[in-house]
Amino acid sequence: MASQCPDADDNAVDEAPILKREVSTVKAVTTDAPLTTADVSHLLDKTILLAGDNAADLVFLQTMLSLSGFRRVFVANGADDLMLAMRHAINQEKCDIDLVILDTQLSGITPQDLRLTLDQFDEWRLIPIIALRAQSQWDHAQILTDLGHGVTSLLYRPLTAESLPPTVMTALAVKQERDLTYQKQQQIEDENAQLKVMEARLQFSVNHDDLTGLANRRRLEHALELSLTQVRHFHTSSALFYIDLDSFKVLNDAEGHEAGDNLLVQVANSLRRFFKVQDTLVRIGSDEFAVLVDNLDRQTALNRAEGLRNLFDGYSFEHHGHQYHLSASIGVKCITDSDKTTVGEVLSHANQACYTAKKRGRNRVHVYSPEDREMHTLRHSVEWAPRIRAALKQGHFILAFQPIYGLSEERVNHYECLIRMRGDDDTLYYPNDFIPVAEAMGLIHQIDLWVVNRAFDLMRTLPNDISVAINLSGNIFLDQNLYPLVKRKLAETGIDPSRIVFEITETSAISNFEQSKKMVIRLRELGCRFALDDFGAGFNSYSYLKHFPVDILKIDGGFIIDLDNDPVDQLLVKSMIDIAHSLGKKVVAEYVERASTMSLLKAYGVDFVQGYLIGKPQAGLPSPEDV
Description:
This protein is of the alpha/beta class. The chain is 47% helix and 20% strand. Helix 2 runs parallel beside helix 8 (164-207), helix 10 runs antiparallel to helix 11 and helix 14 (373-394) packs across helix 15. It is elongated. 33% of the residues are buried.
């Protein structure tokens, strides 16, 4: 493409008065806002291509436009040169040419042909065309023909400085508007496409889990509704499998959430391979999955569940060189037309079956039954938890005291404080009713601290030679509030710390041996004493006795209750007393209900006895006169 465009002068706009007279035309085409010098200069920088057969005419047009301020005016001699220039002007899917001025006398191509060609390509179809005609008279039919074929403007020879530049400026402004409109259209189309993608993702996320891609609980509920309808109307049967990974928390805590997520993705893929495409696979929670299978009878469901358990039995997962072997507890809820259940009840029953499988040893399958005792226990805990919280807030806990008789002194010199809970109707509840629930629901620490605080306050009313034994749960020794409380209460009450005997069961001490041992040592340094309760119940009693820093042993009542008639119990109790004495520890025998039992224990050298023979637990401490 040959260029015959002279250098543009800095004052080209001022040297083209005709442009100033035609500015209003450009305004009307482009914008309602006033045009600035920068706007005009921008239009003058647009690329114009002149095409024709007469070289002299092309030079004349180029010169006229250059003198009017247009800086980028090029010429194309002939139709081939025109199309070559158009192709060379394409750069990165855009054409650098903004306007084509076409002499209608050009052989080989008409304005209509050129328009049809340009319209076939996105790079060219926005380019306006000005047709230069030889006729000097108005031709209405020709105008309709040219403009109907997409020609932007028609100019008739002879051309003047008053007609050509304004028409060119208007055409360039039209091109600019077309470009802006096209860009906005493309932007809108891109935004619409992004919105559709986002909408699809949102729709997917509404019914699917982000991590595994499985369906979520919402999708499962919809599938269950359809399944229940099918079961009731067509008398079919279905099954819901509820899967909970065993020991998943160990991996998650040891290796972090990234490892846990990787495992969950692997599990999801394993479930996809195990079940069919039409089955509804769901991730319910952190490590819980559910699968709804329609048209499945009870026996087939059990076989499928057992196969699923085998799939996860010894499931191996490697992360950073560490091997983890997992398993799964699986609950099964069979859905039949005889069940009048709702979607929520089906989910609840499947979850309960999985809970029962976990409680019965994990790595097993359990089919839901309303007779499962584990669920009765769980419901009992759910019912009791708010009662315990209310009792703590409203002060409905009370202490009862059972006397402990010292055989050498032949008098009561200890009391064991036992907790009771008063209900709203003044019913008295015993520890077996609420302590297991408190331990399961994480409330036992608050009860322990309440007992310690209350026992210290009540001891102020007792003579200085009376001691009190306070029962504590094993986990309280992991609570950092225990030691400061005991230290503060000793300072407040002025009680001799040796009068305080903390009782901890052997099983509790063993379960957290090192932590319990450290806390026992710290409390003994304050002067308090310790008793190991239920001694002998464990298989390693003597081993732990050797290393556990306690002052008193309380022989488990199971050895005492029938001591008179059981020679084996007699041998065991005597050996416990002898070993304890050899280690410098005192011995308490519980459950003493007969005088013959007390005589036998006295002969064995026991230090203290406790039981109904001595006295039953009574609310409140005795007065000093009764001691």
